[in-house]
Amino acid sequence: MDFGKWVFLGLVCFGTLLDFVKGFDYANVSHISFLESYEVSDAVPQPLMVPLTLINGADSKGAVCLDGTLPAYHWDRGFGSGANSWLIQLEGGGWCNNVRTCVYRKTTRRGSSKYMEKQLAFTGLLSNKAEENPDFFNWNRVKLRYCDGASFAGEGQDEAHQMFFRGQQIWSVAMEEFMGKGMRNADQALLSGCSAGGLASILHCDEFRDLFTGHTKVKCLSDAGLFLDAMDVSGGHTLRDFYHGVVTYLGVEKNLPSSCTKHMDPTSCFFPQNLIANIKTPLFILNAAYDAWQVQASLAPKSADPHHQWDQCKMNHARCSASQMHFLQRFRTQMLNSIRGFSKSKSNGLFINSCFAHCQSERQDTWFADDSPVLQNKPVAIAIGDWYFDRAGVKFIDCAYPCDNTCHNLIFRDTDSSSVPVASSNLLIHYNNVSLLLLLLLVEVVTVI
Q: Which range is the signal sequence, renumbered to this chain (predicted)?
């Protein structure tokens, strides 16, 4: 086989693997992460597949993806008692922070609607089945696709590289689109998001509430969006350095809450810990105390661990040494300290479980299933439903690891198997060594361009 055919085969494998990847080596953030995806076994009923819809005319208002294509969403109409209720889910998927990472991103589904899936599975809080999603199954459920690289908050462009940073405009045009389709008359509305989308749901929470008149019940949910300004294992601040690039290069500063920027620098105001106490709209924070993405990409990235002392620990928490676990326990303590002021509000909610996980609301196994994670005997779906509908106050904070045996911990293992089974309480993520090597090589080629 000649070199050209090898390259073509490599690109095909690369594209297939990218469907499972939502976060990877963005500049100094090192590890390829399969944290927001999982395979559904044949035994699990097939989820609802919802088609992609482009927001026609959005470009005339400056609302475009990184590459200039139209933004898009998936919408499943509400029915029955939920016909006049709306749930907006902001998609996650990391960020870009400079020319190199944004140029790469605009050739993926995270930067261009050209590469987005034509249909998307609705599971977890997006499911249309009462047995999978008891409180929101018959609402209008929308997933707004993420293609701006800055948690729907950027504003500007890089003319030299033909890139558009229009996250704020995408947010505005999308909300206008949904209001025109009936959301302006909603009796109930919930803005949610996972990962970078969870950060976006915090940034836009009060804006979302301001769309409605007083008769609409409006709340927000952030899943795995509590990214901390934490020290990494080398004593540096990998995520702060990365966020500084996101905020400055993509023009986020002008869209950050003035309640924060008037007394803190813009980069600090991209960290949720400095925003949540000032949000007026009721907000629920769903987060793993040992967020798997933050462990891999923020606390122990390759750049902060040149001798690979954390490689085994960050792939499988059971392989952490006593000193490494002590470091992770300090991270949990920092997370709990960051929500102290936020938790004082009676209208806010918390579900902080001591798991090594990331994004628990979109996945069916962690949202609502027979063996879902629970706190105070309630799975995530019931806890959030109780909070939203004011059935009960929900301020659930788990005891420290290893006390919780209901977790679906993410464990990464090199094997020759391509399957991704769920074994006991852990989600075992396997990937073929050859395919992973190919992916790593291709990523390295991209990152040196």
A: 1-23
